Amino acid sequence: MTKKISSAMDVAKKANVSQSTVSRVFTPGASVSEKAKRKVLQAAEELGYRPNALARGLITKKTGMVGLAMKDIQNPFYHEILGMFSEKLRKRGYTVLFVYTENEEIQQEEINHFLEYNVEGVIVTDALLSSKVVTRLHDNNIPITLFNRYDKHLSCNSVYCDNIRASKEIASYLYAQGCEDIVFITGKINTSTSRDRQLGFTSYLKNKGIDAAILEGDYTYEKSYHVTNEYIKNNRIPDAIFGANDITALGALDALKNNHIQVPQETIVIGFDDIKMASWPSHALSTWAQPIEQMVNETIDLMLSEINRSKPRKVTLNGTFIHRKTTR
Amino acid sequence: MTKKISSAMDVAKKANVSQSTVSRVFTPGASVSEKAKRKVLQAAEELGYRPNALARGLITKKTGMVGLAMKDIQNPFYHEILGMFSEKLRKRGYTVLFVYTENEEIQQEEINHFLEYNVEGVIVTDALLSSKVVTRLHDNNIPITLFNRYDKHLSCNSVYCDNIRASKEIASYLYAQGCEDIVFITGKINTSTSRDRQLGFTSYLKNKGIDAAILEGDYTYEKSYHVTNEYIKNNRIPDAIFGANDITALGALDALKNNHIQVPQETIVIGFDDIKMASWPSHALSTWAQPIEQMVNETIDLMLSEINRSKPRKVTLNGTFIHRKTTR
Q1: C or N: which end of chain A has fewer Cβ atoms within 10 Å?
Q2: A68-88, pLDDT tens digit by residue?
Q3: What residue of A is the nearest CA neighbor of B253?
Q4: CB A147 within 8 A of CB A281
Q5: Domains recognised in chain A with CATH numbers
Q6: Which one of A89, A125, A228, A282 would you mutate to disrupt binding with B, by most B Cβ within 10 Å of its Cβ?
Q7: What's the pLDDT tens digit per position in B144-168?
Q8: Which strands sit side by side in the sheet containing B320-322, from one edge to the other?
Q9: SS3 of B126, please?
Q10: Euclidean distance between CA atoms B271 and B92, whole angstroms
Q11: Taking the complete model, does pTM exceed 0.90, yes or no?
């Protein structure tokens, strides 16, 4: 059933351009006029031509593939991110090679494919990286960009929200509301996001003479629901709870509701991320909106410029405090 | 900074096996003993050897890549699926080339990469396919498997839950509870999942002399919340609402709560999928659990057997009715 496969020469002839123009149209990042591009794509479409990316990748070392490694497939925050990366990279001529890691730390075996396929760059969202894996990728000239986190021990690009500043602003809001008995529920404690949110929050309050209670969460609804429940059993009802992400805050919110504690009248609840369901009426969660579109754009820009051999850089962005019905 | 790259010959020498054994270890689906595999992988690890998948792909036509196209990145159901596919395919030696489509129907441009990279198979979850795209893939000998849906006009493998049977069982439960005033909220009306769930549900009730009211949803929380709100304004409080998926049922549930209607005392609510948050105490949604792990396994098996040139097949699976707090 296989049809005759058209060649780049057929396309060049039909579009009335040179073969090298055809080749540039199908090479990510290559310079070509919009007009020529349109003519070539139309001719290619009509002829059913497809360039062989594998052959091109072997010759030009430009495979047009970007590796994306993710861990917390349960957190809606990262789903939105994945969709955005896929779409924006495609528009720039790249395709996503996706790896979900089930381990706390990315294993060599899991990213072997990134090496085998000569990806042009690797984006890592929430999974942890050992310096061994980073060295292995760098030895193969594959740049890595960390999304939504940084690791001072690793020589990588990083794009993240200024979590310290954001959580200071949240703390200052609660202080202005007269809250004194304040709880922070951590995320995974080995992540920069959780550490920085805790640091900004507690240091601001400490300066005002307030010691926030720290409950250990792990960025899951279940853990947060559990630790909030336990806390309420053994302590006074707190004035406010700040969860290290929205899922954490939603777990706390449900535990409060389950104990018939009125939000926000008795306790204020604030999350972080502004995932879509934070806006659902059943939650109406006040939260910090990360500028995710800008973060994704910056990540792609950094990665492509690293592909062009610049030095690793860190990009820090801000965001916005969104007040819904769990703040006053 | 680039290190000397080790060759397959170096690995063969170190592992004391033939070069062809080394090659088989790194070729998906090739036969090799566990003992030889262990020796080769250990030697490869020590030498930092990585096979060049692009070169291998050109020669053997086995690229070890599987294309996965997805649309509804907002539905948590598909996140769980994506993680599962990535993990299970990796364990069988394949990597996922991921495409998120923002359009209702997959565009040629969006899957061009699947063709360029010679993926060994394509899995399509919720995005729609034109027969033109299917023909294009088949012309290139790339088999397609539809996950969680079927399309009788397309010649593809399909793996899906028996939605008609499941929704009949839900209808029979409601009938046994004495419900008469019953609402069905559709998903996207051009999907087989929504059509079949509606068909099974309404045909069972029709047989019992009950005409279910049909509200048009689109598998989003927002639309379902809106149509339920409108319905309640203009009609009696229904005895039961069945949403075409969990997100739809959660939108209806919140609209009911917002109108101070007691669930399940006044109205029963049932969803479909059993996404993780259906079990959260704030929702405690009764729902139909699709056997997703089995569905993912069957999809991979079908795809790999199609790669080995069998004929397209359809696999229909069942699932389980999960009772939480929105049923009596």
Answers
A1: N
A2: 998 876 788 988 899 899 989
A3: A282
A4: no
A5: 8-51 (1.10.260.40), 65-161+292-319 (3.40.50.2300), 163-289 (3.40.50.2300)
A6: A282
A7: 999 998 888 888 899 999 999 999 9
A8: B213-215, B182-185, B240-243, B268-273, B286-289, B320-322
A9: coil
A10: 33
A11: no
